[in-house]
Design goal:
Chain lengths: 343, 331
């Protein structure tokens, strides 16, 4: 088997909180606290979880927008997290990002032509001006924008069109991996469908690997091959899409699936309403981080932190229930369909 | 049939802007029965919030201008004085918004936020108001209400703030609650808590609800009847089951086809998402024909020339489309 194009190993990112009289570090935000995953060529892995669980921090750490607290990021066999900026440059091209907000991520003082030409020039991907123009035109085709719109400014486009420009800019660098951080979340329903379809087509056509960060489980199910569920800086479950949606193995995933409203009136489904809010990542609960909201928590959960263990082939979950005999493990069966009312 | 709780007729809310008149809400009519939950859905900018704000007369005039009638318990709200209107707002009709942080007063503690409405509308003493505030927090499921009631909005999580908003909205036993994207800013597990709370309270308090949302999943879960808006117009209305089962308007059909359904990978019903091509038209130019014609796959010259009237296509199911089938289309 070939090596994954991206590997993340035991990634940690803690943000110091400064305070007190001398402005010293008084506490830390454990934004990402030891997570590992890998993505194959042409594969989409989704990171899901609620606000503040650390999804964007994972993406930014991979992009080296800040240093890691601990862990490694390996691109195609080469460790990149500790590379000096100079050596990193050519590798940087290979990981590109599309952010949620197409408004703030495009420079308002650049025409579309220049927005797209910038990465082509930076990474020396065109030999001459004619080739540059040709590449820009082809990018416009790829994201289904009219070629003659290259002379326009970002504000002249709608939200969905701006997101197309953002995608074209990411593709301009000819990446192997695209990180989509809530790339369709801010878009209107009908426009969202257009962009989702575009991303899917491009991925197939170009064989891109994709890290798809989203809190929208229905979109994730539609887009992804595998899913990693995060809770308070940790991955609590990883599985293929089918396994995760048909037989979630972590109580948090189970609750998450049951909470998504489905557009089927009168659908009879099992509902798990979690109590309380997500605790603060400054002071995550001891033991299992989910135990304060988990309906199945028992004594061990309050003291002992569960680690990701394999439950079935390719299916990993971090929950003590799986150390129990099946008869005493409510997460042993397959109840995805009851939770989401699949008909 | 007795008169409904709320009867909106030909509501028209236009805004004057330097580059033309924005026809944000352009002649919509609907009713809400006592205790009924009616959802208004549609994409960003179609006029949902302006409809809600118009019902409470919270539209700044100018640049806004409201026409039509909004009969609440037989009284036309558009004819009331501002003073009479204030007696209704937050009392008989109350509202919750998407972003509780901007609608809560940051310098008042929770007791005062809830108490204020009670003292204003029901003349309670400070003491009574605080007791009632604690009672309301208990009702909306906030733990340790006696402590929380002394806290300020910034000390509360997003979900708790929304609960406080609901507590304020329900404090005076309103007959009508207008909820504008009440869960859009919340996480999905917190959204589930709030929707559950709203359903539960509806049974206990019995208020009618106008729920504004762009989330078809939320609509399916809480609404009894649904109004679909597009570019300032009502294009379809039906009972929730009928709307999802047999949508009549091409826009509604497109909308339903464009959202992925959770669980589709399990049933092998995964398909490419339907795309509605193009963009919502500008509301600043008068549209002669059907508002959806520029994006509709079925549009003909007739559609581009003549605006279709809302017609009953099946009992209780209306749509504004020249071609929407009278008979149910076997889906
Ligand atoms: N630069 C920073 N300094 C301090 N704390 C930070 C910083 N960036 C993120 N955090 C904190 O780290 C945690 C994880 O944030 P992150 O943005 O990764 O969450 P997320 O899962 O992307 O959430 P959302 O769904 O809201 O985008 C949060 O508690 C956040 O407040
Ligand atoms: N005070 C105002 N002055 C001018 N135009 C306004 C004003 N308020 C709203 N509008 C316009 O009215 C139209 C309808 O806006 P509205 O807020 O009702 O949309 P919406 O359906 O609630 O959208 P969303 O889903 O984004 O909340 C928009 O074109 C908006 O720009
Ligand atoms: S380890 Fe315990 S608390 Fe954590 S998810 Fe499993 S059962 Fe719940
Ligand atoms: Mg994020
Ligand atoms: Mg709105």
């Amino acid at each position: 088997m070939s090596r994954p194009v991206l590997e993340v190993m035991d990634l940690k990112k803690h943000f110091p909180i400064h305070g007190g009289f001398f402005g010293g570090v008084t506490a830390k935000v454990y934004a990402v606290d030891g997570i590992s995953f890998s993505i194959d060529k042409g594969e989409t892995l989704s990171l899901v979880g609620e606000s503040g669980c650390g999804k964007s921090t994972v993406g930014k750490a991979i992009l080296r927008l800040f240093g890691l607290t601990d862990g490694q990021v390996v691109l195609d066999g080469t460790r990149i997290d500790d590379m000096p900026a100079g050596t990193l440059r050519p590798l940087r091209r290979r990981i590109q990002v599309v952010f949620q907000d197409p408004y703030s991520s495009l420079n308002p003082r650049m025409r579309v032509r220049d927005i797209l030409a910038e990465p082509i020039r930076n990474f020396g991907l065109a030999k001459n001006k004619a080739e540059l123009e040709e590449r820009v035109a082809l990018l416009m085709d790829k994201v289904r924008l009219p070629r003659d719109a290259v002379g326009r400014w970002p504000h002249e486009f709608s939200g969905g069109q701006r997101q197309r420009i953002g995608i074209a800019r990411a593709l301009a660098a000819e990446p192997d991996i695209i990180i989509c951080d809530e790339a369709v979340s801010a878009l209107d329903v009908s426009v969202k469908a257009q962009i989702v379809n575009l991303l899917q087509d491009l991925q197939k056509e170009l064989g891109l690997a994709m890290l798809f960060i989203s809190h929208d489980l229905a979109i994730v199910e539609h887009m992804t091959h595998r899913v990693a569920v995060m809770y308070l800086g940790k991955i609590v479950e990883v599985a293929t899409k089918r396994d995760l949606f048909s037989a979630p193995k972590h109580p948090y995933t189970e609750a998450l699936l049951s909470a998504v409203p489905v557009p089927m009136p009168g659908a009879a489904r099992e509902r798990i309403i979690l109590k309380g809010d997500v605790p603060s990542p400054i002071n995550p609960p001891k033991g299992c981080r989910f135990h304060t909201r988990c309906g199945y928590a028992f004594d061990r959960c309050r003291v002992d932190e569960p680690v990701l263990k394999i439950t079935d082939a390719g299916h990993w979950a971090a929950c003590h229930l799986h150390d129990r005999p099946a008869a005493e493990n409510p997460m042993a069966g397959a109840k995805g369909a009851d939770l989401i009312a699949a008909h | 049939m007795s008169e409904p709780l709320l009867q909106v007729e030909q509501l028209q809310t236009h805004f004057w802007t330097p580059d033309g008149i924005n026809r944000a809400v352009d002649g919509i009519s609907f009713h809400v029965g006592a205790g009924e939950t009616v959802a208004i859905v549609g994409e960003s900018g179609c006029g949902k919030s302006v409809t809600a704000m118009s019902m409470l007369r919270l539209i700044p005039e100018p640049p806004g201008k409201i026409a039509g009638s909004i009969k609440f318990q037989g009284k036309d709200l558009l004819k009331l004085s501002e003073k009479e209107m204030r007696a209704i707002r937050g009392n008989e009709i109350s509202m919750i918004f998407q972003e509780p942080m901007t609608s809560l007063n940051p310098v008042l503690n929770v007791a005062r936020q809830i108490g204020e409405t009670l003292r204003l509308h029901q003349g309670l003493s400070a003491r009574q108001a605080e007791d009632k505030a604690i009672e309301m927090l208990t009702l909306v499921g906030i733990p340790e209400p006696a402590r929380r009631v002394r806290e300020y909005p910034h000390q509360l999580s997003g979900g708790m703030r929304q609960r406080v908003m609901i507590a304020i909205a329900l404090a005076c036993n309103p007959k009508l609650l207008i909820a504008d994207e009440p869960t859009t800013a919340l996480d999905v597990t917190i959204q589930a808590q709030i929707l559950d709370l709203m359903r539960d309270l509806k049974h206990r308090v019995g208020a009618a609800i106008v729920l504004i949302t762009h989330d078809l999943g939320v609509v399916a879960e809480v609404a009894e009847r649904v109004i679909v808006m597009y570019a300032g117009k009502k294009v379809e209305e039906a009972q929730v089951g009928a709307l999802f089962r047999t949508p009549r308007h091409p826009y509604t059909q497109g909308l339903l086809g464009s959202v992925p359904k959770l669980g589709s990978s399990l049933t092998g019903t995964e398909t490419r998402l339907a795309e509605i091509p193009g963009l919502v038209p500008s509301l600043k130019r008068k549209i002669d024909g059907c508002v959806f014609a520029s994006r509709c796959a079925y549009a003909t010259d007739l559609c581009r020339k003549l605006a279709p009237a809302l017609e009953e296509k099946a009992p209780g199911h209306v749509a504004a489309c020249h071609y929407a089938m009278k008979e149910a289309i076997a889906a």
